[in-house]
Amino acid sequence: MGLPHLQLMTRRNCCLCDDAGAVVAAAAEQGLCSWELVNVDADKGLLVQYGMDVPVLLAEGKMLFKHRVTAAQLQTALADIGRIES
To answer: What is d(CA 83, CA 36) in angstroms, rounded to the nearest whole number?
Structure first.
C-alpha cells in the first residue's frame, strides 16, 4: 500500500494556505504522505466549489481539514488513514 496522497486546495495571497502548506510539506518530508498544491483560482469549477473557503486538505477526494491544520492533527489523520486502508 502506498503513501496517502493529499491535495491542498489553495488561493494566492492566503496566509492560512501558506501555514497549511508548511504543515503538509513537513509531513511529506517525513515520508508520511505525498501531496500537491491545487490553486482553485486556476479552475472555475474549483473556484465555485471552494471560493474563499480555503485551505481545504483532501485525501483521496475526502476532506480532512478546512482552514487550519496542525502537525499533530495531520499525523493523527494520516495514521487513521493507514489503519483504515490496512
So the answer is: 23
